[in-house]
Amino acid sequence: MTAITVDRLTKRYGELVAVDDLSFEVRRGAVTGFLGPNGAGKTTTLKMVLGLARPTAGHALVAGRPYAELDEPARTVGAVLEGGLFHPGRSGRAHLRVQAKAAGLPSGRIEEVLALVGLQAAADKRVGGYSMGMRQRLGLATALLGEPEILILDEPANGLDPAGIRWLRTFLRGFADDGGTALVSSHLLAEVAQAVDDVVVIGHGRCLAQGAIGDLVDPDASLEDVYLDLTGTTEVLR
Ligand SMILES: Nc1ncnc2c1ncn2[C@@H]1O[C@H](COP(=O)(O)OP(=O)(O)O)[C@@H](O)[C@H]1O
Ligand SMILES: [Mg+2]
């Protein structure tokens, strides 16, 4: 079963083709890594999937429908884009209260998501004083408020220390083992490789490889070799 369908998506910003005729499918109940160097078009693609950017061409479906047509978007898909946006003067708990209310979700879920991401101790501190890792956890907590079947996380490992990255991998594995679907972007293959079932690798907005991680990374090659072979040795320069 397909959770997310990206079908010939294209996004142009003037002369720049940020996403170029990109197609892939995300399997239900699996973790899919969405990989590519900085500037490859990951965030732009995720924004189009979430109805936050209008495609120049092509379309995307979430749980079989365009995002804008979902009956209960917060219960279908939880998303965190590029670190999330928070009011710095609000506490983590207050942020979750505002978000739950806006999405029509019960406030009883707030303590559950704080526990799920391990943020209880910092819940009453102002977000302005949070580390990048704490912000990532708060973003994830926000995405989990609606108990969504699908999670879309943009660079969730950014700013996490090694223990935080391990925690994230364990969380993603557990989420998928319970039947959830996760699409997780990263500019580093190694950060997510141990947690993902499938990968989609893009460069310059185009698909470079997709499939099961086991088929992409053979035992003789290092992850780094595979990833750099696919994406080129330098970051995308424009
Ligand atoms: N709103 C925008 N206006 C103009 N160019 C943009 C905009 N958003 C992204 N881009 C450009 O599109 C390309 C892809 O960006 P992005 O999707 O953020 O890549 P990634 O998330 O993989 O780092 C980059 O060259 C970026 O500068
Ligand atoms: Mg990005």
What does this structure look like?
- This protein has 238 residues and is α/β, with parallel strands linked by helices.
- The protein has two domains: 138 residues, Rossmann fold (3-Layer(aba) Sandwich), CATH 3.40.50; 85 residues, Rossmann fold (3-Layer(aba) Sandwich), CATH 3.40.50.
- It contains nine helices and nine strands.
- The strands form two sheets. Strands 5-6-7-3-8-9 form a six-stranded mixed sheet, with helices on both faces. Strands 2-1-4 form a three-stranded antiparallel sheet, with helices on one face.
- Helix 3 crosses helix 4 and helix 4 crosses helix 5.
- The longest helix has 16 residues.
- The termini are far apart.
- The mean pLDDT is 91.
- It binds adenosine-5'-diphosphate (ADP) and magnesium ion (MG).
- Adenosine-5'-diphosphate binds next to strand 2 and helix 1.
Summarize the model shown.
The chain has 238 residues and is an alpha/beta fold. The chain contains 9 helices and 9 strands.
**Beta fraction:** 25-35%
Helix content: 25-40%
- Look at the helices and sheets and give the structural class: alpha/beta
- CATH class division of the largest domain: Alpha Beta
The fold-level CATH name of the largest domain is Rossmann fold
Written as H for each helix and E for each strand, in order along the chain, the element string is EEEHEHEHHHEHEHEEHH
- Whole-angstrom Rg: 17 Å
| Number of helical segments with 4 or more residues | 9
Low-confidence stretches: none
Mean pLDDT across residues: 91
CATH architecture of the largest domain: 3-Layer(aba) Sandwich
Distance between the termini: 37 Å
Q: How many distinct domains?
A: 2
Order of strands, main sheet, comes to: 5-6-7-3-8-9
